[in-house]
Amino acid sequence: MKVAVIGTGYVGLVSGTCFSEFGFDVWCVDKNKEKIDSLNRGEVPIYEPGLEALIRKNVEAERLFFTTDLKEAVRKAQVVFIAVGTPPDPKTGHADLTYVFDAAKEIAQAIDGYTVVVTKSTVPVDTNRRVEEVIRKARPDAEVDVVSNPEFLREGSAIEDFMRPNRVVVGARTERAKEVMRQLYRPLFLLETPMLFTSPESSELIKYASNSFLAIKISFINQIADLCEKCGADISDVAKGVGLDQRIGNKFLHTGPGYGGSCFPKDTLALVHTAKDYKTPISIVEAVVDYNEERKSHMADKIIEACGGSVKGKKIAILGVAFKPNTDDMRDAPSLTIIPKLQNAGASIHAYDPAAMKHAATFLENVTWGEDAYDILDGADCTVILTEWNEFRSLQWVKFKERVKTNLIVDLRNIYKLSDMKAEGISYISLGRPTV
Fold it and tell me: Which tens digits make up the pLDDT trace of 60-116?
């Protein structure tokens, strides 16, 4: 079976590479010639652990190809994935499906024989039906089935998530399309991976519902952390006690400065608008969307308060700017709200991130970027941990105290033990726990 993947963004590139690892011949297509040329030179445009090595392995095995020729790639393929971006419309908040429908039109013109067109992009309910309409209007003679197959990849562990997923969801209307998808995911059968077949509408909604539920869970524990600070409880103990309930589980119960990234902000907003379109508003998710934005701003206030109520003329050292570790993704990262607010309050920002500084520099102005974590600490009035990279968990405290002006850490990820900070004589402020 031969596969074409339209779009070499995060989802398309990871999915295409992993399908080639399954043993299929895969053509990854993008209109951006510079991007394709870079990939053909072995240069990977995103930071994802293990991806570069996996691409190199399958290119050398002649199973993975990168091209700008959509027509030729689709003509060769029995399965064509649409993995283009669906960013929120800045005016309406709805998912912008322009790239999806444009890809569908081009695919229609290139189809040669029976083809399963799979929507991998995250799209609102009813999109697959509309994609099929676009294809059939452009090519009434096309022998095609349109299938929904949402992705559930976590940035930073996407390879593992693809190779060992919790489940594979397929929204298909015909047995023929279902059988093709079974063959495509056959390598996962040995792992006894659950494969759920639904209608396309259910499949589309599963993606949004899953991400929105996780966003609710994150916002819930963040609000409980705020309550802990007021009443003297410790969020570490509270989260552990809650997470031990098997009906709830311990995942996504880690307090932080608010969720970000490519999925949760976009998908929660899209679900809110989809629900409104169907006149069935989801007030819980609406509240989460509003609260998450407020929390990012509140985190800047927390830092200012820790600095005595003013950061004017003070140097703030920021450790981590990506929305999470093991990625260079800056989409909706809390740092994009926190850093400008601190700057507007008069702070001088010095920052370091192991992977995201190049991308971050296109969004954040007047930031002094360091070579490593210690490079930004000289004379710092406050050190802020925004992203829980592993290398920040083992700072050398003698070296730290030699460089900073004030032994003040505001940890928005709770990566240190209170007892350790007390023993080191560090003024330590975290979330939902007593101040040391």
Answer: 999 999 999 999 999 999 999 999 999 988 888 888 999 999 999 999 999 999 999
Burial class (CB in 10 A: 0-12, 13-18, 19+), 30: buried
Token pair recorded at residue 433: 């726990």
Q: What angle do CA 265, 303, 350 make, to 5 degrees?
A: 85
Strands 115-119 and 427-429: unpaired
What's the average model confidence in pLDDT over 5-29?
Answer: 97
What are the residues facing 429 on neighbouring strands? 410
Contacts of 14 (CB under 8 A, 6+ apart): 48, 51, 153, 158, 159, 162
**Residue 307 annotated in active site:** no
Q: DSSP for 171-239, please give it.
A: E-SSHHHHHHHHHHTGGGGGGT--EEEE-HHHHHHHHHHHHHHHHHHHHHHHHHHHHHHHHT--HHHHH
Interhelix angle 283-306/335-344, rounded to 10 degrees, is 40
User: Rounded CA gap, 307 and 319, in Å?
Assistant: 17
All domains in the chain, ordered by first residue = 2-196 (3.40.50.720), 226-429 (3.40.50.720)
How many residues in the chain?
Answer: 436
Q: Residue 304 and residue 311: Cα distance in Å, rounded?
A: 6
Q: Which residues contact 29 (CB under 8 A, 6 or more apart)?
A: 4, 5, 6, 7, 8, 67, 68, 69, 70, 73, 74
Is the C-alpha dihedral spanning 121, 2, 65, 47 positive or negative? positive
The string of pLDDT tens digits covering residues 229-248 is 999 999 999 999 999 999 99
The pLDDT tens digits for 303-319 are: 999 999 999 999 999 99
Rounded Cα–Cα distance for residues 351 and 210 (Å):
33
HSE at residue 249, side-chain half, CA atoms within 13 A, is 5
Q: Are 296 and 330 in contact (CB under 8 A)?
A: no
Residue among 18, 28, 228, 263 flagged as catalytic: 263
Mean pLDDT of 195-222: 97
How far apart are the C-alpha atoms of 10 and 46, rounded to whole Å?
A: 7
